[in-house]
């Protein structure tokens, strides 16, 4: 009887420590704390505003999660520069004209995807570590951003793009619908497609995956391509949120934040495990935490320390979860 009781407690604890459940619970806790500290923090309008800000990180982290799940120390440090790239190229081509929106979007997606393919090619064919390859590519993209702008604002979002991103349907901003749509597509890709099955196999054991027929080379290259494409798309949508681009480093904040969101969401940096459900709520949790710390008027260095402590605590708890399930 005692053993059954102990097993039941362990099962309940393991369920609570499941990344998606844990991160979602932390979101609720942060909302409750924020409401106590600053009444109105958890008001529906305020929650929607925080979700809007979190959506761009959530889209970037979707691509980052694919690269991390693929294993082999997969990580993409060029995503922040690609966010800026998507906004700058989109604005420069659109020039606030609705009729140029589709061409601008296609151009951003194609060019971003090509950058990702170059990242994947460098990693696969030349053996360059992903950290180094994507960092170098990020520097090239940043230089391209500076060249395009010449240090001054260029173009801007068309009225239609603005409407699609910040326009409201039933009181909900359009960007949240786009984020949910992208989340559904990523979840289907990971859990209901051959690509997802191959990606998890690749991240778990590359040698075994190759022997079982997984096309390792194209898988890695395409995964980096999808990651870059999503980063560029996030930048394009961010342009619709801002209206115009004045800051050529506007996407830099998403580079490490996307990695943190992936880890907080329960995806192991070693690859082969995890998924986007936890990452989705991880992006929301990070935004809630930042909003709470700003409400508390905490300085940037204090916010950075808090983020680091929370990240380490979650990693420790996920480690305990693995032991409980053994």
From TrEMBL:
Annotated localization: Cell membrane
UniProt keyword annotation of Transmembrane helix present: yes
Pfam families tied to this protein: BPD_transp_2
One CC-aspect GO term: plasma membrane
Signal peptide as annotated in the record: none
Keywords attached to this entry: Cell membrane, Membrane, Transmembrane, Transmembrane helix
Topological relation to the membrane, as annotated: Multi-pass membrane protein
Transmembrane segments: 20-41, 48-69, 101-118, 169-190, 221-242, 254-272, 301-319
Principal location class: membrane
GO MF terms held by the record: transmembrane transporter activity
Name under which the protein is recorded: Sugar ABC transporter permease
Taxonomic placement: Bacteria, Pseudomonadati, Spirochaetota, Spirochaetia, Spirochaetales
